[in-house]
Write a structure and sequence with these properties.
Radius of gyration: 28 Å
Number of strands: 17
Shape: globular
CATH architecture of the largest domain: Alpha-Beta Complex
Oligomer: single chain
Helix content: 40-55%
Structural class: alpha/beta
Length: 647
C-alpha cells in the first residue's frame, strides 16, 4: 500500500500520508508527496489540495531510521519549495503533532488549519541541529521574529490555541478534521489566498532585540551550541534576502549535523526512546494501575503523590499520625499552589489534583490499592515495619514498592508474603519534577511486577532505568565516587570554588560542592555513619569534618561555603579553609577543563565497574541516569558517551 494516496472530493483533492506509527518523512513519503504535487498540478479538475495524515498524528518529523545515512532525494527543502510552488494551493490539516520537518512541510502549504488538540513545533535544537528545510526562514515571515525565536531556540512545541495566537496556523477546526478542512478550503478558495510564506515580508528588529535574545538564549542553552546557531539563522532570515537566508540555514544545519553535540543528543534521543519499553519485557503484561497508595508524606512522599496526581491516578496518602498527615497534605498543597503561581496549572486544576488525594493514618485505607509506594525515612527498621503493615492491609496481588536510595531492597522485603510483587522504585527529589526513575527488582520480583514498574514510569512521563542491587544503585554510586574525586582534588590543593566552576563550565547547573550545600551535607554523612555503626570501614571525608563542625550546608548558613542570611549565593569560607588546612597538600595548578575531565573520567570509570557487575545493562542506561537524575549536560551525552564508552 502506498504511503501517500490521493482521493478526490469534488474539485478538491485530499492527499493522505499513511506511514505508521508517526507518519515520519521517509524517502518514500517525500517522493509520494512530490509525485502528488506533480499529478494534481496536471489535473484540470482540481482547484486545491488538503494535506492530511492517517493515524494518530500529522507528520511528526524526520524518519529516525535515516539518521546518519546519506540523504536520498527528493530532499526536504526541495519538497517544501515544490509544495509552496504548486499551481493548486495546498492546505495543511494538522492533528496530533506537526514537528520538525513535518511543520516545515506545513509551512510550504498556503494555509494551515489544526484540530483543537494539535501541536506544532520545531524541536531540532534538542538534537543539536537547526531546522534544515526553511523553518528558521519561513517561521519569522509567518509569525514574526519574536515568535520564531521563542519556538525555534527552545525547541518546545505549542498547542493549537497558542499556535493560532502566534500566527503559526490560520484556524482551529472543531469536530471532524477532514470535513472541517475541506469546508475551510472551499471557503478560502473563493477569496484571495494569502501569499506564499516565503514571499511575505519580515521586519528586522533593532540591535537591542538581538542582544537581549542572545543573552537569554545563551543562559537557557547552558553550553549547547544549536540554540545560538538557530538564533543566528533567524537573524539572517530577518536581515538578508530569501535565497541567502535559506543557504545560511542549510549550511548551518549541515555543519551541526556532523558535530559532537548532535551525535551526543541523538544518542540520548534513541536511549530515551527505548527506555520505557525494554526488550526483555516485550511480551510481559503489566498489572493494571487504577488506585495507588503512598506511605510517608514527607518531601519525597508528597512529591511522589504529586507526580501520581499529575498522571490522573487517585492517591491514598498514609502517615503515622494526624499531625504528620496534615503536614504532608500541606506540603502537597504547596506543590500544586507553586504550579499555579508559575502558570503550569490553573487554580481549578490544582484543586482537582488535591481533591484526588485521600489522607489516612490507618493502613486499612490501602485495602484496594493496586500499588503502594513506601517513602519513609531511610532506616531499615522503619521500612520493615511499614511492609509488615502493608502485608496485613493490602491485597495479596498488590504491587509493593520501596523508594530506598541506598538500602538493600532484599533486606527491606525480608519475610514479605508473595515477594514476587515487591520492587524498588527509586524516585529523585523533587519527585514531581525529576524525570529519572531507577527500577530495582529483587531476585524474587516477577516479570509482571517489573513490567508494572515500567508501565508506571510511562504513566508518569519519567525515564525508567533498571538497576541491579548494590549500595547506591547506579546514580548514587557514581555520585559517591565523583564526590570522593572532587575531595581528592581539594586535598591536592585545588580550590573548592575552582572545582565547582570547572563543572559549571562543563555544563552542569552547579558544581559538586555547591550541590552538596543545597541538598545538605548531613544526608551522606548519616549514611556513612550508619555504615560505620554496622562495622564497615569507611574513611573519613572532608565533608565529615564540616558536618561535625556544624556545617551542614545552606540550611545552617554554611557548608563548603558561607551563606549570608536569606541568600543562596556561596561565599568563600575562612572557617572551611581553617578546618581543612591540615589536610591540604599545597597548591596544584590545574585548569578548569583538566579538572572537569578528571571528574568525568572518574564517573565513567565507576560506570565501567557497574557494567562489569551487571548493575546496569548498557552504557546508555548509565548516561540516562546521569542526565535525568544528576544534571549531566544533555548535549555531552552522559559520562559514558563523553568518554567514548558507548558499548
Amino acid at each position: 500500500m502506498s504511503v501517500v494516496r490521493i482521493e478526490r472530493d469534488g474539485d478538491l483533492a485530499v492527499v493522505t500520508v499513511d506511514n505508521p506509527p508517526v507518519n515520519a518523512l521517509s524517502a518514500s513519503v517525500r517522493q509520494g508527496l512530490w509525485d502528488a504535487a506533480e499529478t494534481l498540478d496536471a489535473d484540470p479538475g482540481i482547484r486545491g489540495v488538503v494535506l492530511i495524515c492517517a493515524g494518530r498524528t500529522f507528520i511528526a518529523g524526520a524518519d529516525v531510521t535515516e539518521f546518519g545515512k546519506p540523504p536520498v532525494p527528493p530532499h526536504l527543502p526541495d519538497l517544501v519549495n515544490r509544495i509552496e510552488a504548486a499551481a493548486k494551493p495546498w492546505i495543511a490539516a494538522i492533528h496530533g503533532s506537526a514537528l520538525g520537518g513535518g511543520f516545515e512541510v506545513a509551512l510550504g502549504c498556503r494555509v494551515r488549519v489544526a484540530a483543537e488538540g494539535a501541536s506544532v513545533g520545531l524541536p531540532e535544537v534538542n538534537l543539536g541541529i537547526v531546522p534544515g528545510a526553511s523553518g528558521t526562514v519561513r517561521t519569522p515571515r509567518l509569525a514574526g521574529v519574536a515568535a520564531a525565536v521563542e519556538l525555534i531556540t527552545t525547541g518546545k512545541p505549542v498547542k493549537a490555541a497558542k499556535a493560532r495566537e502566534m500566527g503559526l496556523i490560520d484556524a482551529i477546526v472543531p469536530g471532524d478534521l477532514r470535513a472541517g478542512a475541506l469546508a475551510f478550503a472551499r471557503q478560502a478558495l473563493e477569496a484571495p489566498l494569502p501569499a506564499p510564506v516565503s514571499v511575505r515580508p519580515v521586519t528586522a528588529p533593532d540591535e537591542g532585540f538581538w542582544t537581549e535574545a542572545r543573552g537569554r538564549v545563551a543562559k537557557a542553552a547552558k553550553g549547547a551550541a544549536a540554540p545560538l546557531r538557530a538564533l543566528e539563522c533567524i537573524r539572517k532570515a530577518a536581515e538578508a534576502p530569501l535565497a541567502e537566508a535559506l543557504a545560511f540555514e542549510r549550511q548551518t544545519f549541515l555543519d551541526l549535523r556532523g558535530s559532537d553535540q548532535s551525535a551526543a543528543l541523538r544518542a540520548v534521543f534513541f536511549a530515551e526512546r527505548a527506555a520505557p519499553r525494554p526488550a526483555h519485557l516485550k511480551d510481559v503484561t503489566p498489572r493494571p494501575l487504577t488506585r495507588v497508595g503512598v506511605v510517608g508524606a514527607g518531601t519525597m512522599g508528597a512529591g511522589i503523590a504529586a507526580a501520581l496526581r499529575d498522571a490522573g491516578l487517585p492517591v491514598t496518602l498514609i502517615e503515622r499520625d494526624a499531625a504528620a498527615l496534615e503536614r504532608g497534605l500541606h506540603t502537597l498543597r504547596g506543590i500544586f499552589d507553586g504550579a499555579v503561581s508559575r502558570g503550569r496549572l490553573t487554580a481549578e486544576a490544582a484543586a482537582d489534583r488535591l481533591a484526588g488525594v485521600t489522607g489516612a493514618t490507618d493502613y486499612a485505607a490501602l485495602a484496594e490499592a493496586d500499588l503502594v509506594i513506601e517513602a519513609v525515612f531511610e532506616e531499615i527498621g522503619v521500612k520493615r515495619a511499614v511492609f509488615a503493615e502493608l502485608a496485613r492491609a493490602c491485597r495479596p496481588d498488590a504491587v509493593l514498592a520501596t523508594n530506598t536510595s541506598y538500602l538493600d531492597p532484599r533486606a527491606i522485603a525480608e519475610g514479605l508474603p508473595n515477594p514476587d510483587r515487591f520492587i524498588g522504585l527509586h524516585f529523585f527529589s523533587p519527585a514531581n519534577v525529576m524525570k529519572l526513575l531507577e527500577i530495582v527488582p529483587t531476585p524474587d520480583t516477577s516479570p509482571e511486577t517489573l513490567a508494572t514498574g515500567f508501565a508506571l514510569a510511562r504513566m508518569l512521563g519519567k525515564v525508567p532505568v533498571q538497576a541491579g542491587i548494590c549500595e547506591g544503585f547506579i546514580g548514587n554510586r557514581i555520585l559517591k565516587r565523583m564526590r570522593a574525586a572532587a575531595e581528592a582534588l581539594v586535598r591536592e590543593g585545588v580550590p573548592i570554588a575552582e572545582v565547582d566552576a570547572a563543572m559549571r563550565d562543563y555544563g552542569f547547573a552547579m558544581g559538586p560542592f555547591e550541590a552538596q550545600d543545597l541538598g545538605g551535607l548531613d544526608i551522606a554523612y548519616l549514611q556513612r555513619e550508619g555504615a560505620r555503626a554496622a562495622g564497615r570501614t569507611v574513611p573519613e571525608t572532608l565533608g565529615d569534618i564540616l558536618v561535625r563542625a556544624g556545617r551542614k550546608g545552606q540550611k545552617t548558613g554554611g557548608g563548603w561555603y558561607d551563606y549570608a542570611p536569606g541568600s543562596r549565593a556561596p561565599m568563600a569560607s575562612a572557617a572551611v579553609a581553617k578546618l581543612l588546612a591540615p589536610l591540604i597538600a599545597g597548591k596544584v595548578a590545574l585548569d578548569r577543563p583538566a579538572i572537569a575531565d578528571r571528574l568525568i573520567a572518574e564517573m565513567a570509570a565507576e560506570g565501567d565497574t557497574i557494567l562489569a557487575e551487571g548493575i546496569a545493562a548498557t552504557p546508555a542506561d548509565i548516561d540516562l541516569v546521569e542526565i535525568h537524575g544528576y544534571g549531566f549536560p544533555r548535549w555531552r551525552g552522559g559520562p559514558m558517551f563523553a568518554t567514548g564508552r558507548r558499548g
